[in-house]
Amino acid sequence: MKEEKNKAVHSSFWANIFHQPDEKADLKLSLLSIPLFDSLDKKDLNNLLNITHNRSYLAGEYVFYQGDPGIGLYLIREGEVQIVREDEGGNSIILATLSKGDFFGELALVDGEKRSATAIAITDVRAAVIFKPDLDEFILKYPKKGIRILNGISQIVVTRLRSLNEDFFSLQSHKKNGEKHGT
What is the DSSP letter of 69? Predict the structure, then answer.
């Protein structure tokens, strides 16, 4: 009889029930690691958790395609995702490979425009997703916190734009130096 009880405790049903608090705590820490949400207090973070959805993707599965409507921000909980952009000639260029703790799709929270690249699960992936309509409702309900989140998105966009400007400048400088030296 004692052996049967041990088997029941190790079933996936019970494991899922008993690990939910750890899962929630892990998600809280993951959200706090993102500059968009690090200024939220415990209550606001719990409210944000209520609009966070869990998604799983198998290796090779597309999270979204370039040109799809931008509907949300993705936070990688496990696995790796590759961000790929295709040019007019059909050539694919890998823009980034992201892993646990990384996030992508944040521009969709602001503009809702079409995706500028494709996201593909390289390994099996677990992700937390915050969809734009849910965040919009959160911002309406908690405007001060919403301003902080939108400010965080602005900071991320500015940081990435500055990095892009530096990369472009560096590329142009190398190109000019190459022309001067006949290469």
Answer: B
